[in-house]
Amino acid sequence: MRQHRILALLGSLAAAAGLIAGCSDDGGDAGPVGAQSSAASAGPSVSDEVTVTRIDYPTLDGTDPEQNWGDLYLPAGPQAVDSTRLVVLIHGGAWQSQLGADLFDPFARDLAARGMAVYNIEYRRLGSGGGWPTTFEDVSQALDNVIAIDKRFPQLETTDALVVGHSAGAQLAVWGGTRHKLDPTEVGGNPKFRPTRVVSLAGPLDMVQAVRNGDDRIVAALGGTPGQVPERYASVDPIQNLDPGTPVIAVHGTRDTVVLPSLSQRYVTALKNENGSGRVVLIDGEDHGSIVSSNSVAYRQILDIITEGSTKTVDQLSE
User: Fold this and answer.
1) What is the DSSP letter of 85?
2) Concatenated DSSP letters for 173-206?
C-alpha cells in the first residue's frame, strides 16, 4: 500500500464526514446523483449514493471546455486505497458530434451501483472541431489523464483497468488499449496510462474492410481512404494493431447493418491467430443502436458482460 495515498484518503474522509451526500462544494443541490465540478476539492468523498465529478483534461492544442472532459462516477460508501476497479467508457456516433457522452450515462450509473468507478469521457468530433488527428489526440489525452485522476481519488485501482466503447468509440477503445504498441511519434503513442482489458460494442474493428463494405464515415474520420492515407489506418485500425496481451470481448447485435458483426468476428479470429485472448458475443435481435439502449431487453446482459470484463481473470475472459 502506498503510505502517502493512505494518508491522503484518510484526510479526505475526515473532511467529507460533515458534508451532505450529493452536494457540490458551493452547497448547491446536485440532484439524485451528486455532481461536482472539476473545481471540487482534491480527494474522494464518502456518500450513501453514487456521486459524479466532472473533470477537465488537458489537450495538445485548442482545448474546448465544452467537450474536453470526463465524468467520474464513484460508488456509494467508503472505499479503501486501490480497491475500486476502473471502467473507462468511450461513446460512439461515427466520430461525429451528433451523439455525446450522455449516451453512456445509464451504463455509468448502473456500473457504479455495482461497485465500480466509471470514467465516461467526451471528446471533439467531426462537426465540433474534431477529425484527424484531433479526435484521436483528445481520446489519448483523456485516457492519460487517469494518472492525475488516480492521484486525486486514491481509492481507484488503475493498473488493470477496462475500457469499453460503442461503435466509433469501440474502435477508439481497442486502439486505446493497444497504444503502447505504437511508435512514440505516432498519434497517441507513448501512453502514460494503459487499459489492459477491452469490451467492444458493435465496433468497426477491421476499418479497411469496413471501408470496402461502404463505410464512408471512417473515410471522413481519417480524412481519406486506405489507399489515400494508409499510414493513418495502419496506426489506428484495431486489426492492424493486435496485442495478444490485451483481452478483447467483441459484442455485436445480429441485426446490426451499420457495422457488420463480421468485423468483430474477423478481429477476434486475427487476435486468436496471434495467440491472444478474444471472444465474440452475438446478441440475437439487437441492432447497432439498441445494443447500448437502457430500454433494450439485452441491457442487463451488456452490463453483466462489462462487469465480467472488469473482474474476471484473463483466462476466464476467453472462455
Assistant:
1) E
2) HHHHHSGGGS-TTSTT-S-S----EEEEES---S
Beta-bridge partner residues of 303? none
d(CA 141, CA 192): 9
Amino acid at 120: N
The CA distance from 280 to 262, in Å, is: 10
Residue 94: all three cell numbers together:
461515427
Query: How does pLDDT run across 100-115, given as a tens digit for each residue?
Result: 999 999 999 999 999 9
- For the segment 130-149, what is each residue's pLDDT rounded down to a tens digit? 999 999 999 999 999 999 99
pTM: 0.86
What is the rounded CA–CA span in Å between residue 116 and residue 83?
9
User: pLDDT tens for residues 158-187?
Assistant: 999 999 999 999 999 999 999 999 999 999
- Tell me the H-state helices in 114-186: 134-144, 146-152, 168-177
Distances (CA, A) of 310 to 14, 115, 272, 317: 30, 11, 20, 9
